[in-house]
Structure formats: C-alpha cells, structure tokens
Amino acid sequence: MYKLIAFMLLIGFIMLLQALQADEEVALQALFQGKHAVNRAAHAAAQQVDRNKLKDGIVSIDPASAEAAALLYLQRNLRLDGANEPLPDTFWRTRAEVLELEIVNENRPFPYTYTNTDYNYTVTLAKPGVVMIVRLVYPRTYTVLGPITWEIKGTAELVF
User: Fold this and answer.
1) What is the pLDDT of residue 12?
2) What domain of life is recorded for the organism (predicted)?
3) Which of 12, 50, 86, 112 sits at a 20 to 30 Å CA gap from 27?
C-alpha cells in the first residue's frame, strides 16, 4: 500500500515539474513575441520623416506620425485594441502599457546617449531615432510560476 501512495506522490510531483517547464517555455515565447512587437513598433515610428523639415534639408522624425505608427504597430503585432487592451480570444489578458515613447530628433547633439534610470536603460543613437519601453504582464497558464512582468525596451534609428 505504501508503494502505491509513494507512486501517486511521485506522479503528482512529475506533473508539477511538467507544468512548470511548459509554463516557462510559453513565457519565453511570449517574451520573444513582445520583444519583436516593440522592436517593430519602434522601427515603424523611426521611419516617420518630417517632410516639411526635409524640404529645408533637416532630417527629422515627425513626432505625431511617429507616435501613431508606434501604437498602431504595437497594437497589430500584439492583437490589441485602440486602448491597448487585448482583443477577445488573444493570448494576452492585460493591457500593454507604453511606459516611454521618446523621439530623439535633430535638436540634440549626435551621437546622443539616451539614459532612463527608472527602467535601467541606456542606448547611444548616431542619428534621429525612437526609444520605446512597454510593460507586458505574462498570462500564466498554470499557477506554478509566480507573476511575471516585463519592461520591454526597443530602439530604432531613422534610416535615410
């Protein structure tokens, strides 16, 4: 009888380990998905050239267009609505919070070092660019893992 109880406990422990491993793997894939979405959004924002300044020979990013493009790309890549809430039947369960969307333009000396001590992020830009930091909360599959929250950082420079 004691062998049956030990066997059942062992099976329960193995199932717990399997759930932990599966949840860790899904969390890693979710982090990659979030990182790709933030990188694509920053890149889309960095390509929004200010055409009025370009006429005068000044290479600059249009802030309004850049913000709109960044949010649109983030929403499309993570399947979010206009308020950054997840759409029904999507992987994410909580709002994607845009913590920082900094547009670094020609009014700063280049190379420019952007530093954000709140999120422990430093990057050097050689030309106008965009820095984006987004907070995502991992929707746990099992309750084996503790809550996971990421501040995902992305940077892109204007290509000209």
Assistant:
1) 85
2) Bacteria
3) 12
